[in-house]
Specification:
About 0% of the residues lie in helices and about 40% in strands. By secondary structure, the protein is mainly β. Strands 1, 4, 6, 7 and 8 form a five-stranded antiparallel sheet that branches. It has a four-stranded antiparallel sheet with strand order 14-13-16-17, with no helix packed on it. The model has no long low-confidence stretch (mean pLDDT about 90).
């Protein structure tokens, strides 16, 4: 029996799959069935198809992979883009930030595989290592997202820490 799964970030019994590849999963049992463990780290709709013994089963099975529980707050600087399901959850190079000039950051609640969580809301506390930074102490996370302007005032590398009290997650 061969199996095909749409989308990326899938594995069968621990073996990674590429989108659209047919993968041998073994012979069916005496009752005509076979069992495998399908894992996906990306929350999305998947289509699963199978064929065996020269026959293609024309219907595909639709499966919805849900996002997991809240795990972290993810920060995006200008120039970075989300990549759900793949570590570290984003791609791109952040644009340079200059002391004394405001820049925008985006925040989103994510599960342990960087899938966005639109059902998370609350007050996000913001702390930085820059003692003179111009930024609100809190920002409201609505539908899992927030955006805030930050102006770094101290030269050198700085760190930002976010926390959401309920559910208790940070980033």
């Amino acid at each position: 029996v061969y199996l095909q799964v749409s989308g990326g970030y899938n594995s069968i019994d621990g073996v990674p799959l590429d989108d659209g590849d047919w993968v041998w999963i073994g012979d069916s049992g005496p009752d005509g069935t076979i069992s495998v463990n399908l894992t996906s780290t990306k929350a999305e709709s998947k289509s699963i198809r199978a064929h065996g013994d020269g026959m293609l089963i024309p219907e595909s099975i639709a499966v919805e992979i849900p996002a997991g529980d809240p795990d972290a707050l993810q920060i995006f600087l200008v120039g970075e883009t989300a990549v759900p399901g793949d570590d570290p959850g984003k791609t791109g190079l952040p644009e340079d930030t200059y002391m004394g000039e405001p820049s925008q950051i985006s925040i989103q609640a994510v599960d342990s595989h960087w899938n966005p969580l639109a059902d998370v809301s609350g007050t996000v506390s913001i702390q930085t290592t820059d003692p003179a930074v111009v930024i609100p102490e809190t920002v409201q996370l609505v539908d899992g997202q927030a955006s805030v302007a930050v102006t770094w005032m101290t030269a050198g590398q700085q760190t930002m820490t976010l926390s959401l009290d309920d559910p208790a997650i940070s980033g």
